[in-house]
Automatic annotation (TrEMBL):
Gene Ontology molecular function: catalase activity; heme binding; metal ion binding
Annotated EC: 1.11.1.-
Superkingdom of the organism of origin: Bacteria
Xref: Gene3D superfamilies: 1.20.1280.120, Catalase core domain (2.40.180.10)
Active-site residues, record numbering mapped to chain: H74
Oxidoreductase listed as a keyword: yes
Keyword entries, A-Z: Heme, Iron, Metal-binding, Oxidoreductase, Peroxidase
Protein name: Catalase-related peroxidase
PANTHER family recorded: CATALASE, CATALASE T
UniProt similarity note: Belongs to the catalase family.
Known cofactor(s): heme
Biological role stated in the UniProt entry: Has an organic peroxide-dependent peroxidase activity.
Any one GO CC term of the record: cytoplasm
Length: 355
C-alpha cells in the first residue's frame, strides 16, 4: 500500500532551509512559516469546563458506565515500552527537547474506542483504535501525543461532539439519522470502513488537532501528527475477525515484541497558510509536506499492565517548549475531559502540569 512517507520531502536539499524559515517554498507540498503568536482565548478555556464533565457523563451513558477504575472511553488497552529517536528534520522544525539529542524512553498505550471494559477487539465499537505516547524527558518530565486510527473527527467543536454522544446514547434511530444528515463530518465518520487491524502495530494513527511547532530560529509551522507502522498497515477480513479471540490485539502485541520490536515513524503533516488549523474535521490535502520526525521502537510489554494503565494520564496539552496548541478548541476540551475521566478513575487529584 502507499506509504505516507512517499510524501515526505525529508532529505531533499531545500527542506532544512525551509524549516529554518530561510526560504519560503511555494511549490506543491510546501508550506510557509507561520507569523505571529497563537493563543487559546481565555473565554474558550472557560466555556469548555462544564462541557468536559458532561461529555464524560455522555460516554458513561453510551457505554453503561461508569465502570469502576476504568477510562470513560478507550477503556481497554495495553501498554508497551521502548525508545524514541528523533531525526534532524524534527530538530529543524521545533526546539522541543525530545526532538533533539539521543534516544529517550517512551510508554505507549494502544486501545480500542469502546468504553466497555469487556469490549471485544473485533467489534465495530472498537474503532477508532487509540495510540497514546508518553515521551520521558531527560529532566524527568514528560510530554504526550494522543492519536487515533481515524484521520479526522466527527465534530469540530466540543459542544457538537457532546451533542453527537448524547444523540448516540439516546439510541433513537430517527434522532441519530437527523444528526448525521445535518452534520457532514459525523456522516463521513459513521460511513468510514470499520476495519480490524491484524495488530496494533499494523495500523496508522492520527493526532487530528493541530499544534504550532517553533524552532531555535523562532520560525513556526502548524502541523498534525501521524504514526506510520513501519511493518505497514494490514487488516483482517470478516472471516478472519470471526475466528479471533476477544483480546487478540493484546495477545498479538505481547507475542510480537518478544520476537521483534514494533516500530512506528512519527510523521508531522505541515499546514499551508490556507489550511484550517482550528478544525479537526477538516483533513488537509495529501499533497502537504510530511516530515519524518523520528522512530518509535517498542520492544516490550509490561507485567503490572492494569495498574499502570489506570495510573497513567495522557493528554494532548501535556506539552514542552517549542510545541504550542493551535486555536483548535478540541485541545482544551479533550484535556479537560481526559482529566475528569482520570480523576473519576483514580479518585484522587491528578498532578498534571499543563494547567
Ligand atoms: C472533544 C473531543 C474529545 C473528547 C471530549 C474526548 C474524550 C476522551 C476521554 C474522556 C477519554 C478518557 C481519558 C482517560 O480516562 O484517561 C479519551 C481517551 C482517548 N481519546 Fe479522546 N476525546 C476527544 C477527541 C479525541 C480525538 C480527536 C482523538 C484522536 C486524535 C482522541 C483519542 C483518544 C485516545 C487515544 C484516548 C485513550 C487515551 C489513553 O490511552 O489514556 N480523542 N477521550
Amino acid at each position: 500500500m502507499r506509504s505516507h512517507v512517499s510524501d515526505v520531502i525529508a532529505g531533499s536539499p531545500g527542506v532544512a532551509a525551509f524549516l529554518l524559515g530561510l526560504s519560503i517554498a511555494t511549490g506543491a507540498g510546501a508550506t510557509e512559516p507561520v507569523p505571529g503568536p497563537v493563543s487559546v482565548p481565555a473565554t474558550q478555556k472557560g466555556a469548555t469546563s462544564a462541557v468536559a464533565a458532561q461529555t464524560v457523563d455522555a460516554f458513561d451513558r453510551l457505554f453503561q458506565g461508569p465502570h469502576a477504575g476504568a477510562r470513560a472511553v478507550h477503556t481497554k488497552g495495553i501498554l508497551a515500552e521502548g525508545t524514541f529517536v528523533p531525526t534532524e528534520q524534527a530538530a529543524l522544525l521545533s526546539r522541543a527537547v525530545h526532538f533533539h539529542g539521543p534516544a529517550i524512553p517512551v510508554v505507549v498505550r494502544f486501545s480500542n474506542f469502546s468504553g466497555l471494559p469487556a469490549n471485544v477487539d473485533g467489534d465495530a465499537a472498537s474503532n477508532p483504535r487509540g495510540m497514546s505516547i508518553k515521551f520521558v524527558l531527560p529532566d524527568g518530565g514528560d510530554t504526550d501525543i494522543v492519536a487515533h486510527s481515524y484521520n479526522g473527527f466527527p465534530a469540530a467543536t466540543p459542544e457538537d461532539f457532546l451533542e453527537f454522544l448524547r444523540v448516540l446514547g439516546s439510541q433513537d434511530a430517527s434522532r441519530i439519522d437527523r444528526f448525521l444528515a445535518t452534520h457532514p463530518a459525523a456522516q463521513t465518520f459513521a460511513a468510514a470502513p470499520n476495519r480490524s487491524p491484524q495488530s496494533y502495530a499494523r495500523e496508522f494513527y492520527y493526532g487530528v488537532n493541530a499544534f504550532r511547532f517553533t524552532n531555535d530560529a523562532g520560525v513556526s509551522h502548524y502541523g498534525r501528527y501521524r504514526l506510520e507502522p513501519i511493518a505497514g498497515a494490514a487488516y483482517l477480513g470478516p472471516t478472519d475477525v470471526a475466528g479471533k479471540s476477544r483480546d487478540y490485539l493484546a495477545q498479538e502485541l505481547r507475542q510480537r515484541v518478544r520476537q521483534e520490536p514494533a516500530r512506528f515513524r512519527l510523521l508531522i503533516q505541515l499546514a499551508r497558510p490556507s489550511d484550517p488549523v482550528n478544525d479537526g474535521t477538516m483533513v488537509w490535502p495529501d499533497d502537504r509536506t510530511v516530515i519524518n520526525a523520528g522512530t518509535l521502537t517498542l520492544n516490550r510489554t509490561v507485567t503490572d499492565d492494569a495498574a499502570r494503565q489506570r495510573a497513567l494520564l495522557f493528554t494532548p496539552l501535556n506539552l514542552v517548549g517549542g510545541i504550542a496548541p493551535s486555536a483548535d478548541p478540541m485541545l482544551v476540551a479533550r484535556t479537560r475531559a481526559y482529566r475528569v475521566s482520570f480523576e473519576r478513575r483514580v479518585g484522587t487529584h491528578a498532578d498534571e502540569k499543563d494547567k
